[in-house]
Amino acid sequence: VQLQASGGGLVQAGDSLRLSCAASGLTFSNYAMGWYRQAPGKERELVAGIANVGIRGHSDSVKGRFTISRDNAKSTVYLQMNSLKPEDTAVYYCAAALSLRVVTSTPNYWGQGTEVTVSS
Q: Residue 86: is it exposed, middle or buried by C-beta count within 10 angstroms (0-12/13-18/19+)?
């Protein structure tokens, strides 16, 4: 299983970015997907999760600004990030598991991460 995250970069506060995570080596439509992030000196935290059937949730810190979505035909999960803040600066990781409960707690598979830096 490979999860290839992309789309990170350096942006200014208030800007938008869309992260993508392309999955291979698994039947994507069977898997729940998640996005996590890890800021410098902090523990990795859950950002959002989406079930294989599209049910989704977002952490309180990003609710209303970030949106997770998926395209099963492209085996890709996205994270649309709007109104970015300096505190969103982190390495963002995608993850996969066979259920939303597992992907939002102890995912089976992890991507390599893509770095997002938000300047003030």
A: exposed
Burial 52-70 (b: 16+ CB within 10 A, else e): beeebebbeebeeebbbeb
Q: In 23-109, which ranges are continuous DSSP H helix? A: 100-103
The tokens 């770095």 sit on which residue? Answer: 115
Amino acid at 94: C
CA distance 120 to 118: 7
Q: In the chain, what percentage of residues exceed pLDDT 70?
A: 100
Q: Tell me how far apart the alpha carbons of residues 119 and 61 are, in angstroms, rounded to a whole number.
A: 18
For the chain, the farthest-separated pair of C-alpha atoms sits apart, in whole angstroms, at: 40
Average pLDDT on 17-38 reads 98
- pLDDT, residue 115, reads 98
78: helix, coil or strand? strand
Cα(58)–Cα(66) distance, integer angstroms? 8
All residues at 6 or more sequence positions from 64 whose CB lies less than 8 Å from its CB, including other chains: none
